[in-house]
Amino acid sequence: MSQRFRLPSGGHVDRSKRLNFTFDGRAYDGHHGDTLAAALLANGVRLVGRSFKYHRPRGILSAGVEEPNALVELRDGARREPNTRATVAELFDGLAATSQNHRGSLAFDWMAVNGLLAPWLGAGFYYKTFMWPASFWERVYEPMIRKAAGLGRASGLPDPDHYESAHAHCDVLVVGAGAAGLAAARAAGATGARVILAEQDFLLGGDLLNEPGLEAWRQESIAALEAMPEVTLLPRTTVFGFYDQGVLGAVERVADHLPQPPAHTARQRYWTIRAKEVVLATGAHERIIAFPGNDRPGVMLAGAARTYARRYGVRAGETAALFATHDAAYDAAFALAEAGTRIAAIIDPRTDSAAMQRAREAGFTVNAGSVVTGTVGGNALRGVEIGAPGSGGRGDAVPADLLMVSGGWNPAVHLASMSGSALAWDEALLAFVPGAASQHERSAGGCRGVNGIAAAAADGAAAGQAAAVAAGFAAAPAMTLPEAPAPDHRPYELWEVKGRGKAFVDIQDDVTADDIRLAHREGYSHIEHAKRYTTHAMGTDQGKVGGLVGAAVLAEAREEPVAKVGLPRFRPYTSPVAWGAIAGGEVGQHFQPVRRTALHGEHEALGAVWMDAGIWKRPAYYPKAGDADAWASVKREARAVRERVGVCDVSTLGKIVVEGPDAATFLDRVYANTFSTLQVGRARYGLMLREDGIVFDDGTTTRLGPDRFFVTTTTAQAGPVMQHLEFHLASAWPDLDVSLASVTDQWAAMSIAGPKAREVVAAVVTGLDVSNEAFPFMAVADCLAAGVPARLFRISFSGELAYEIAMPAGYATQVWRAVLAAGAPHGIEPYGVEALGLLRIEKGHVAGSELNGQTTAQDLGLGRMLKKKGDFIGRVLAQRPGMTDPSRPRLVGLRSADPARQIRAGCHLIVDGRSQGWISSATQSVVDPGWIGLGLLRDGETHIGSVIVAANPLMGEEVPVKVVSPHGYDAENLRVRA
Amino acid sequence: MLRIPCPHCGARDEVEFTYRGDATVTRPGPDGDVGAFHDYLYLRRNPRGWQVEWWQHNGGCRAFLKVLRHTVTHEVRAVAAATETLEVPGA
Ligand SMILES: [Zn+2]
Question: B23: which chain A residues are within 8 Å (Cβ-Cβ)?
């Protein structure tokens, strides 16, 4: 029969709307307003999952976010989402849900044999068992654990939905829309304050949803809030973290309740909320009691059974027992009886109470002074064993298919604790409550231990008004508050019933009370250590139902009060948050910004193959018809530079203008070599060190005027160099009158290199004599290029006669086209980063692979550049013995002994069977065909001329290489100066 | 997430800033020896409490600012220009 546990009326479900869904392939139906858990219970489905470690059968324990058991996979295909709590997943028509963590069927799981191995699977099992031999870890243990443990399966497919992030500011943020939260938002909203009310549920009301008598007040409150223009209601929004300075994080499930998001709608929205004042009205979580078999399907928190009956109109069982330690829990028995469930027994360790008397009057069998000593059944509860506390044995069994449990209520103090408030122990509640606030926050209602709906509403109203006043608003008239009786929820202290069988303190992680005691015996007695040793409270539920129970078991073992043992530190997230929501829109091509040079379109038109240089897009090479492969293109471009002329976009180099009366002094201090002696209109290669003496960056710097310099940096270090200069100007030498401006984006630049470069430049440039005599190597001057104001530099990275033309970025295309046109008669080729790299390796110039944050100037053969006089960054610490040790690896050139055998960057350089260095850069030569490279080799000079081995153990390669001078090509620089 | 009042730009979110550590160490002068530079570069007090530290407003005016921040509560109590001095409470 369909929904045979559904009541004919009552609750907040719409019985006129039937929703079809499947669970493990079987078809069921439920109603609009159901959670998946409510709909499963309505259909009599009790077994919903298997436990993490022992694969024990598990059922629905709760009716909310604290659910440890009912974790299911929702949807299929690319939208399949694992580890979703059935107790908060809204039912929609067509929902496909699957149980997880079992092999074979859910009802018969082969891995349940782990339960038989239980004596060996106790606390610290992973640490102890999988220690030896180490080689087994990767190949045997880890795959085995991954197969056996773990929960749901990720889809493995790209997420078809999109997620967005939003920022909000408000005067008062109210977290939670139960009685306290609604009242707080109304009181704050009445003052005119900007209020955000966030509620994780899809309905506002919290426990009001279980109280038909208070429905009018709930609806009136929602209507009042909706009428306030400054109040924003955010249902389906979980506030998961409280951070510094009034910042809270929240995730809004915009479309999780739909089969798929409507067009242009995010699946989820990640909120960063900055609030002047915060009211926490997060309520409380009911806690379990540790007794043998407390994890059997059919064992449920008492408040959850009441919620299923009252809010969803679902009986969670035919015959129920209640095991409770306080009066408030008895309302569950009355609610279930009202729903038609037979109450077979009430088990209470106390001798007498008002609720017990009412229960007796209602005709229930009350077992005062008793406890549940065990449960009977297999995949479903069949009976409850009742006995005397401390008897240790198995009691008499009473038939029942539902056991409602309440060991008391834990105020949901997570956010208060994250805000910095130290928690305080409440002796009456036997629970932690928030202590003094350390931020602009206050707790109201159940989350600070206030008992009953009416008291919570009053507390919320006071807190909401106080928060608005603290945010600078004048108090406004209060609303009418609801009235309702408040049964006593102060519990009798009972954390555990000791007996035979597993008594769980963390049902999700399969942690038993015995595991906690074992951790204590083995020295893991601090709550944080016990947590990690046993995995107690480490699951997706973060110990909401059993965390304090485990702490109490530990306290007993330590013979100390629970208050002293405490709880593990609360951290975000209070509830699981999907990675998609955290990533937001920053995925795919939006993962990071893209920087394009002013010539991007020109490269595209030439068919450039792109490569990433940081976030820059740079042409790697320009393939042409007839090129056999990428190497053919690269070598063709490099050969053009060596034999004729080439042009390369070098706009990505960092460019900084350094200006002011002390500019030269400043540069002398930040560069290892001297710039104050540089003539106006000349450039010089410069080397910067870090303060620890390691090489930081290199580049050419030009003196444009007596007080004006133009610094260039490598592409990768453009940002860091700018910060480095700014920092030292601010912190070390504020007396220097210097200003800095980054002009990287303002200037585009291209290098024209090759024996025919002068002819091309002469054809493009006007107003400047570019002959070797008038414009020698390292000359710089302003000019017109293709009619555009430009600056010409005679500098070379390739080892050929070369010029660099820089012009305002907006004119770059015009100049680029003029250069290509002027170069056409000479066979000009545009060349990319790969050819640039080939040419500089041939020439022996260092680049990022050699300036790798580990090398000194001496290592790179640049030791003579360090000036002998005057202070500069890195001067002192570069003189430390470890930095000047002559046996440090030094820059060498390398050439594969067999020109056909490839050498690769990253290879070890092996001398006499030992690694003595590495290859930093490798390429093919065009002047002397074969594989060449640069490397850093211990005692490098002494090996020049000899053949050593370049080894790549990962690829099983050993290639003989000849060690040569790094400056093999035109060592006298005749070509550069031609 | 901190909010830092930049003297030039106003209160801004910490994502606009880059942290640069303890601002109470000063670079030794030209006569500093290896020991002095070692201490400047590597030694930090790492206090539990108030600390004057460098934050660069690199997403704004780019100024290096001195910020008085509590390392436990993350409260930002004062912000000053690089050339100014911030007193550490109780120091
Ligand atoms: Zn600023």
Answer: 731
Residue bearing tokens 């919620």: A307
The answer to whether B11 faces chain A, any CB pair under 8 Å, is: no
Domains of chain B, earliest start first: 3-26+34-81 (3.30.2270.10)
Cα of A727 vs centre of ligand 1, distance in Å, is 15
Q: How far is the CA of A656 from the centre of ligand 1 (A)?
A: 20
CB A703, CB A680: distance < 8 Å: yes
Q: Are A681 and A791 in contact (CB under 8 A)?
A: no
Q: What average pLDDT does this structure show over A335-350?
A: 97
| Residue A839 near residue A976 (C-beta atoms within 8 A) | no
pLDDT of residue A367: 97
> Does residue B24 sit at the A interface (CB-CB below 8 Å)?
no
Q: How far is A689 from chain B (nearest CA, A)?
A: 14
CA–CA distance, A948 with A930 (Å, rounded to integer): 17
What's the B3 CA to ligand 1 centre distance in angstroms? 12
**What is the spatial distance between Cα B72 and Cα B51, in angstroms, rounded to a whole number?**
10
Minimal-distance CA residue of chain A relative to B23: A731
Q: What percent of chain A has pLDDT over 90?
A: 90
The residue of B64, B69, B77, B83 whose CB has the most chain A CBs within 10 angstroms, and thus the best one to mutate to test that interface, is B64
Most B CBs within 10 Å, among A242, A243, A244, to test the B interface: A244
The number of C-alpha atoms within 13 Å of A815 and in the hemisphere containing its C-beta is 33
Q: With beta carbons under 8 A apart, name residues in chain A contacting B2.
A: 244-245
Please state the rounded mean pLDDT for residues A862-874: 95
Tokens of B53: 């530290």
Mean pLDDT of chain A: 94
Contacts across the A-B interface (CB distance below 8 Å): 60
Helix %, strand %, coil % of chain A (to 5)? 25, 30, 45
ipTM: 0.98
Of A730, A870, A879, Cβ closest to residue B34: A879
Does A245 contact B30 at a Cβ distance shorter than 8 Å? no
- pTM here is 0.89
Q: Which residues of A759-778 are buried (b: 16+ CB within 10 A; e: fewer)?
A: bbbbbbbeebebeeeebebb
Q: Set out the domains of chain A in order of their start, with CATH numbers.
A: 1-155 (3.10.20.440), 163-284+412-470 (3.50.50.60), 291-406 (3.50.50.60), 501-573 (1.10.10), 595-652+746-838 (3.30.1360.120), 655-742 (3.30.70.1400), 886-978 (2.40.30.110)
The dihedrals phi and psi of A521, each to the nearest 5 degrees, come to: -60, -30
How many H-runs (helices) and E-runs (strands) does chain A carry?
A: 25, 48
Q: Are A950 and A919 in contact (CB under 8 A)?
A: yes
Task: Please write the tens of the pLDDT for every residue from B32-54.
Answer: 999 999 999 999 999 999 999 99
The amino acid at A804: E
CA atoms within 13 A on the CB side of A925: 23
By the CB < 8 Å criterion, does B85 face chain A?
no
- Cα-to-centroid distance, B70 and ligand 1 (Å): 21
pLDDT tens, A267-305?
Answer: 999 999 999 999 999 999 999 999 999 999 999 999 999
Question: CB within 8 A of A725, min separation 6: which ones?
Answer: A656, A658, A666, A670, A740
> How far apart are the C-alpha atoms of A863 and A659, rounded to whole Å?
28
The verdict on B59 touching A (C-beta cutoff 8 Å) is no
| Nearest chain A residue (CA) to B29 | A871
Q: What is the pLDDT of residues A607-648, one digit of tens each?
A: 999 999 999 999 999 999 999 999 999 999 999 999 999 999
- Are A870 and B33 a contacting pair at CB < 8 A? no
The pLDDT tens digits for A142-151 are 555 555 445 6
**Secondary structure class of A269 (helix, strand, coil):** strand
